[in-house]
Amino acid sequence: MKVTKRDGKTEVFMPEKVVVSAVKAGAPYETARDIASSLSKRSESTMKSTDIRKYVLSELRTRKAAKAADAWETYDRTHKKA
Length: 82
What we know:
This protein has one domain. Helix content is 63%, strand content 11%. It has helices spanning 15-25, 29-40, 49-62, 66-80, and strands at residues 2-4, 10-12, 46-48. It starts with a strand and ends with a helix.
């Protein structure tokens, strides 16, 4: 799968980026790894980075890691103006 970034560039999807970001936000490693794995198995050939972000945040909340999702969103608002 490829990822279309906010600036329009495309890169290969790297599950490790999802894992690292989720863990830094406070998600348990296993939860982060499971979410990244589920993204890797999706059938889309290309996904927007914003759609990946929405999916990860939704999954974090579903998997009882809402604090990590909140921390991720706070970081984005503060540093990325997302």
